[in-house]
Structures are given as C-alpha cells and as structure tokens.
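Let's practice the habit of predicting before peeking. Look at the sequence and jot down your guess about where helices and strands might fall. Then scroll down.
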Amino acid sequence: MLKTIFYKKQLPPHTAKLSASFALLVIAILTVTLSRPADSSAQSLEKLNRFVQSTKASDAATQLFAQGRDLLQEREYGDAADRFKRFLNDYPRHKDVDAALYWLAYSLTKIERFAEADRQIERLFRDYPKSNWADDAKSLRVQIAGQVRDTKTITNELDNDKLEIKLIALQSLFQADPERGAAVVADIIKPDSTASPKMKETAVMLLGQHGGTKSGDTLLALARGGDPKLQKTAIFWLGQSRDSRAFEALQELAGSADLEVAKTALFAISQQNDERAKQVLLKAARSGQSAALRREAIFWLGQRGGDGAVDDLLQIYESDSDVEIKKHVLFALSQHDSPRASAKLNEIARSGGNVEVRKQAIFWIGQRGDEQTLQTLIQLYDSESDAGIKDQLIFAFGQSHKKAALTKLMQIAKSDSSTEMRKKAIFWLGQSKDPEARKLIEEILK
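Done guessing? Here is the structure:
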C-alpha cells in the first residue's frame, strides 16, 4: 500500500486520478460478493454472541447453550445441533427456547438436514410468533427453500415488508429456478416499478450471475441506457457473460461520450483475458476520445501480465508526448516485475528529459523498496545536479526503511553542498526512530 506523507507534497498528483480505476475494481469485488447465495451466518452469529454475552446467568442451561454457540463458531455443526437438542429436551420451559430452536434449525441446515430444520422453524413460528429470532428464522427458511427448490415458499417472501428478507428470497429463487428469477427481475427493473434502488441493483447483479439464457437481452438493454447505476452494474456483468453479443456491446460502450460509461465498459473488457480485449484496451490507450479514458485504458492494460503488456506500454511511452500520459505509463510499468520494465524506469529516472517525468520514475522505483533499486537511487543522487530531482530522491530515501537509505540521508545532512538538501534530509531523519539518526540531529543542533 502506498504511503501518503505530508511534506510539501503527497503522492504524485496523477495517482489520485487512478482512484476511479481502483473504485471500479472495489465495486467489482463487492458486486461478486454481494451476489453470492445469501447466508445469514456472520450477522446471525454476531447476534448470537451478543445474546450469549448479555446472559448473566451461569447455570447449567446457559452453559449448555454457550457450548452450542462455541461449536457453531468451530463449524462443528452436527455437535452443535446435539447441544441445542439437549437444551430443548432438558429445559423445555426455559426463556431461551425460541433462540435454541432457531440455532438448532441453523445447525441442521449446515449439515443439509433441511426437512428437520424446517420443522424446527415451523415450531418456532407456531409457539413463539413474536420471537426476536422470527425474522432470522424466516430468512433461514427462504435459504432452505432455495436449496430444495421450493419456489412457493420463496415467492411468498418476495413481497415481504423487510428488504433483507426480500433480497434473500430473490437470491434463493435464482438458486432454485434461474429462468423464473430472470422473469421476476424483469418486473423489478421496469421503469414504473416501486422496488427500492437496492432491490433493483441486487436484481441486476443476480441476473448477471445466474440469469441463464434470458439474462442477455435484459443486460444488453440496461447497459445501453436507463438508470445510470443499473447501467454500470449491467455493463460489469456483461463483462462476465459468455453471451456472444456481450463483447460487441462493450466495445461499443467503450466509445461512449459518457466518460463513466466508457470507463466502466473498459473495466469490463479488461476482465477478459483474450486478444480481442487487449486490442480494445490498446486502441483506447493510444487514441481514446479523451485523456481521462486513455489513462483508464493504460491502467487496465498495465494490469495484464506478461511481456506483451510491457511491450505495449513501452510503445505508448515512446510515441506519446503528453506528460500525463507518460506518467500513467510509468505507473503501469511499475506494476510489472519484468526486468525490462525496471530497466525502463531506471533509464527514465537517469535521463528521461522532462523533470516531472523523471521524478515520477524515481517515485515508482522508490516504491519497490529492494536493495538493488535503492542503490540505483543512491548512485543517481551522487551524479545528479537538478534540485528537483535531488528533492525527489531524498523523499524516496525518507520513505525507505532500509539502512542504506538512512545512511545516505545522514551523509546528505552532514555534508551536502546544498543547505536546502541538508534541511530536507534532516527532516526525514527526524521522522526516523533510529538512534543513529537521532544522535546526528542532536549533534547538528548543538
């Protein structure tokens, strides 16, 4: 992770522009996570922990219940079910019978004894309709229904007043019957639908992941216009689609006048590891309709591994005169372990022409943090005359945790011919906890 240091400067300004790319990546990861089949495990286990911890009693019943909780956390579901059964048999009038019924059902679900789990849930609803565990039990029943393809139970909960249960029901419906799920989604995302934005977005996610043969037309229509948020979600899932029409649509959207749409399409294309995708990214990197889109394409081009990506980046660097584009290429090169990428960064740092570009190369070399690159920077400082470059090198030394970097800063602080550089070195020594650095500062202050 890059460090942000407030010393007249922070990270190179152009790295802030990469935030959109990283944001898209994060969104993609969250999208995949959120669209997985629902499971109330983490949330319910947290609730169970709070429940057990809030119980002040230390009697045998409470201890037995706590044993069940501990076994659940250890994923010993069969043993946990046995503990909760014992609790119900030994303490049928206990105040926590409803909680034990829910956790017995939960444990049984985990070992795929679905019919038995459903009977415990039914007992909970019948005997404790106002239980604090009723909603958890309803969610669990819907998840069970998805496993056993009970679409009647699932569809009954699609109109539930509680959004969380509706979302779980929709996920379970896709698990039980993807074609029917796709039909329900078509209604949810209609312009006149009263469904909440969260419901609509989740519906599109599920459609993209599980929609079957009917999903393609809907995703294509959403990707080409409509609700901007749903449009981006649809574009993302087109990137995961095997529909033969998806790539052509993404290529078209990558040329959109709407920058956010074009960037989302480029991201979706970047997830496909084939020659077609590479060529689209390469074209956008070289001649995209805006500098922002070109930078985005360069970023994703740089995420593709192998020497081919390095070749493409080097060609863009050599053929382009735009300083910001060159900076983005340097960042992309810094993401590669290729010796040729490292050699190019070193070459630019030494004699790249434009000072800002050279400083950028130095920054990314410094981020590598190994002894070899550090020695390269130290040698460069000794041969360099430009104050701006020297300043950037001192910054790199200050960011390093290597002893050689600290030694170089101490040398600069003691004997550099430039008072300004000595001050900068002293500043970074002051950030160090190294006793030698502190001793040197004390000597300078005397």
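How did you do? Residues 19-34 form the longest helix (16 residues).
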